[in-house]
Amino acid sequence: MNNIKNQVLPNKKLWLVGVIIIAIFYSCVPAIQVVQENKEVPNQFDTQSIDTTNTASVKWKDYFTDPYLNELIETALKNNQELKITLQEVEIARNEVKAKKGEYLPFVDFQAGAETEKVGRFTSQGANDANTEIEPGREFPEPLPSYNLGLQARWELDVWKKLRNAKKATYQRYIASVEGQNFLVTNLIAEIANSYYELLTIDNQLSIVEENIDIQSNALKIVNLQKQAARVTELAVQRFEAEVLHTQSLQYDIKQQITETENKINFLVGRFPQPILRSSASFYNLVPESLSVGVPSQLLENRPDVRQAEMELEASKLDVKVAKARFFPSLGISAGIGLEAFNLSYITKTPESLFYSVVGDIAGPLINRNEIKALYFNANAKQLQAVYNYERTVLNAYLEVANQLSNISNLEKSYHLKSLKVDALTRSIDISNTLFKSARADYMEVLLTQRDALESKFELVETKKAQMNAVVNMYRALGGGWN
């Protein structure tokens, strides 16, 4: 009975010492600031009813109805170089997950070697070898060769989950990289659509300029006839001619814009310059799609950038746990087994040539832990950054939708009024020409009317482009396109 007590008592003492050591390490972990992310968003968007129907769930092939635009988007998703770069970043992140997973599994290495050793005879080892016989009448050879082959294993016991948390953090960043790729797809689709509508806008501006050149050229002919009849002076002729030349020069500026916009689209599509197929004639007939914005909480699921920020936040929380685990002792086990002999003919003779070893070790920081503390504080600071970045991303997503809601509504009213303005100024061109022929209006009124009509048509086309861009940007803001 006394023997049993004597055996149990030292074990209790060892456990007590272990508990005291762990308590000391825990007490040495510095305190850090903890901030929880705010995931609260308003229940609904302003002026919108609570309806969970959301345009973000519509696939881009169904959202965009122009076949030329859809073909450009499909080609870009296959060829865009930036998207391909991002795909490789996702692959890198996936491989890092595998690497982290392997760190908390045992490592087993195979080794084989050969060496020759000559020790001094007047040493303890040399004197011992000289007086030792391998077999009767045979001493150890000098110099002494050595051949070995075997397995070495090492394993760090992940008691504090340092390695597992590091692997989980890497996995969260891999998911974040996938969401980053989805966000790039959303932006790429939106950029191509906006550039396509910009190209249609410029095409129609060129048509307006060419139409205006015809109108101004006819007016110039009338002025020349009236000059011959002594009803106007040379000044009127020169002013009309200057206006025609000015408008003619505009068409070359617009043609340059067409070339640059086509090349911008070709770059996004990932190909060398070539003409962009499009249907410019139907630009005025484009009607913005009716949009369902859903509820703000859906942005947390639909927006890839919000989910990416969330995954980065979860990874940063795990990084703090990993940094905290560095304050505690690490436990390791290493073992080896194999065969070793000074002659290859003896290497298979067991158990004489057999060797093995098992070693357990514990190591922990005790003095000068400034580096560990600094890394711990840095991990905490990065986690706080991730919290604020997540909240900022959510706020930005909400504001983008709210801005586009207001933009779509205001553009609709603006387009209606500008179309009425264009109609009025178009009629005024004929009126001014009639009055000018009957000498009831001077040439400056005709010139100003033509210039105002040209500017108003430009404004109307630009407003139509802004309408289509707002529809595209709303689709992107809601998180559509990537799925």
UniProtKB/TrEMBL annotation:
Family annotation (Gene3D superfamilies): Outer membrane efflux proteins (OEP)
Coiled-coil annotated residue ranges, if any: 73-100
Subcellular locations according to the entry: Cell membrane
Pfam families the UniProt entry points to: OEP
InterPro entries: MdtP/NodT-like, OMP_efflux
Keywords: Coiled coil, Lipoprotein, Membrane, Palmitate, Transmembrane, Transmembrane beta strand, Transmembrane helix
Membrane topology, as annotated: Lipid-anchor
SUPFAM superfamilies reported in the protein's UniProt record: Outer membrane efflux proteins (OEP)
Transmembrane segments: 14-35
Similarity section: Belongs to the outer membrane factor (OMF) (TC 1.B.17) family.
Name assigned to this protein: TolC family protein
Taxonomic source organism: Mariniflexile gromovii
Organism ancestry: Bacteria, Pseudomonadati, Bacteroidota, Flavobacteriia, Flavobacteriales
